[in-house]
Amino acid sequence: MFVIEYKVKGSQNQYRAIDSAIRTGQFVRNKALRLWMDAKKEDKISKYDLNKYCAVLAKEFDFAKKLNSTARQSSAERAWSAISRFYDNCKKQAIGKKGFPKFKKHSRSVEYKHSGWRLNPHTKKHITFTDKIGIGKLKLIGSRDIYFYQPEQIKRVRLLRRADGYYCQFSISIEVKEELKPANQNIGLDVGLKYFYADSNGNTAANPRFYRKSEKKLNRLNRRKSKKYRKGKKQSKNYHKARIRYALAHLKVSRQREEYAKKLARCVVTSNDVIAYEDLNVKGLVKNRKLSKSISDASWTQFRKWIEYFGFKFGKITVAVPPQYTSQDCPKCEARIKKSLSTRTHACKCGYVEDRDIAASINILKKGLSTVGHTGTQVWGDLPSGSVGGGKGGF
Question: Any idea what DSSP says for residue 291?
Fold first, then answer.
């Protein structure tokens, strides 16, 4: 699937209608989840039972009936995806919490399938939502041209709310693979905090630390927002303005992280045939109170996600290897030398001296070349790579 995103322009009434559609979709998802929770073991609620339940909700609640039927089904499918993920984690005996489904409190999107919307057949720069929720005709603002694709290729249309406005995403069913000439080069990657990553060729990428650089500004905006908050009372316009400024600053940081990880991942994948990286348990690592902020700021999970995506797109081999002892073993003689995090240089009795991260990347490449495919991890295209890894590793 290929996603094209536009920013939408409309009136304040249309924006309120989008918010109403998002709340209705959240309501349907939560009601579907409640149906599954209240069901007895012998009932065995399935995905199709949740889809059928959408029609029951439409008859019972007038505001749910106004939302398009496929949008209601998409919301029920979101509930089922959380349920199936919970079942899969239980079967796999995943480390830690299994992710029991929770009720949504603050949804930000609603998704339509093949009906409930209509593109302008001539320019395709306007989209009209035809259900009774009242969204109507919206202008699409963006440089991506959707008129290259046929209407039947558009499988999903998603309305999304962000801090800087409303967006419309089109999920298009096309082949995303591209062929590249073999680079005749393999690489191992060791992500860290000093460097964004160090590779087995001795190269390093700087860690930009976007959040750390913006932390003072974010704290200042948060204080201004908090001073305007009145507990138990209706919030003023100044409070909402301060809240939006604070959200925009966070949105900028998240976009900086995403673009930086995407740019580096594309460069790495296109210039190598085999990419090996650590199968880190990031969720477990961020529990470290002293390093959690720095780990989150480094965006390791996003980098891995884009490595897997571009590997799938360009037909390259991406291998996630166990991270145990990659920072301790000597790449030359394979002797195990224990080091603390403060020791940044690998010095072995055999005379091999190298930067700790570069030595680790060489070990990662060796493990990757001895591993067939994605043994013990996920391949992009089959399942999302949000639940990263199960191993423990150093930095």
Answer: T
Q: What is the pLDDT of residues 131-159, one digit of tens each?
A: 999 999 999 998 777 878 888 889 999 99
| Number of domains observed in the structure of the chain | 2
Q: Are 261 and 303 in contact (CB under 8 A)?
A: yes
**Are 163 and 271 part of one and the same domain?**
no
Whether residue 126 sits in one domain with residue 103: yes
Tokens 């009795």 appear where? 349
Helix (H, G, I), strand (E, B) or coil at 237: helix
Tell me the residue range of the domain where 340 lies.
186-205+260-369
> Per residue in 313-347, pLDDT tens?
888 889 888 888 888 888 878 778 787 777 788 88
The C-alpha atoms of residue 232 and residue 351 are separated, in whole angstroms, by 68
Is there a domain that residue 247 lies in? no
The pairing of beta strand 274-278 with beta strand 186-191: parallel
Can you give the pTM of this predicted structure? Answer: 0.82
**Within a domain: residue 332?**
yes
Helix (H, G, I), strand (E, B) or coil at 368: helix
Are 12 and 61 members of one domain? Answer: yes
Whole-number Å distance between alpha carbons of 203 and 266: 16
- Separation of alpha carbons 204 and 207, rounded Å: 9
- Separation between Cα atoms, residue 4 and residue 156, nearest integer Å: 11
> Looking at the structure, do residues 122 and 196 belong to the same domain, yes or no?
no
